[in-house]
Amino acid sequence: MNRKELQPESSPQAAFGARLRSAREARGWTQDDLAERMGYSSTHISAVETGRKLPTLRFSRGADRAFGTEGTADTFERQWREIRHGSLLEGFPEYVGHEGRAAEVRLYEVGVVPGLLQTPEYASVLAGSAVKRGSITPDQAEERVSLVAERQAALARTPPPLVFVVLDESCIRRPIGGPAVMDAQLARLVEFAERPSTVLHVAPFDMGERRPFDLPITVLTMPDRSLMSYAESAQRGHLERESTSVLPILAAYHQLQADAHSQAASVALIDQLRKGTP
After folding, report:
1. Distance, CA of 252 to CA of 245 (rounded, Å)
2. What is the pTM (predicted TM-score) of this model?
3. Angle at which helices 57-67 and 76-83 pack, to 10 degrees?
4. Of 19, 32, 134, 241, which sits most exposed with the smallest number of CB within 10 A?
């Protein structure tokens, strides 16, 4: 059998493949053996080992189960997340890990519906647009859409986190993906507002200078009641854990909620848009 020499230093993807092969061979397993344990074909295993195919979240978690690395400091899943730094802002994967454990999530978004509330179709349109611009690959687009589903699944855990969302009016008025995609997305927002552990507000355009934030912001309350905030620049995401910095952001968020439309008025506005009325 021809054995391709690997160059793990050439890219994070190649390093993942080399580690996979090394772990497999250390146990004396063939590619067929590992494929059976992970539920993939041996051809798929070979393609990941040689860097011809990107690993996915499902694949990485399967590798952790097969090799017994779940819950360790150096999982295949962690390495997979590092690969994705090429298509995600630096700092965002770390934030997602905290988001999935938070007891309360408060977020404010401008321009687009945030990932936690996106339909798969809406998320796919945004990812597809990034592919057309050449900023990410089709495989990275697929992973972005998968990440949206992964983050939303965290909302269904027991007990669910409390989620407070304030959307700038631009989020619901900016057309994404055509009428059918947008109508389904607006319907998702209404459904979200009806859940017992969620609150939805729309911050209207006429708030003007009373709007305390110009960019999206998220504040997490962790199970131990510690706080952290997350914000993004064009280059990276920044996670802030110092309470002296987070508490003023939390206070401003409460002011934003107070000045925004009530949930009932917000849902009524969304329903009006769905009916095509101004």
Report:
1. 12
2. 0.71
3. 160
4. 134
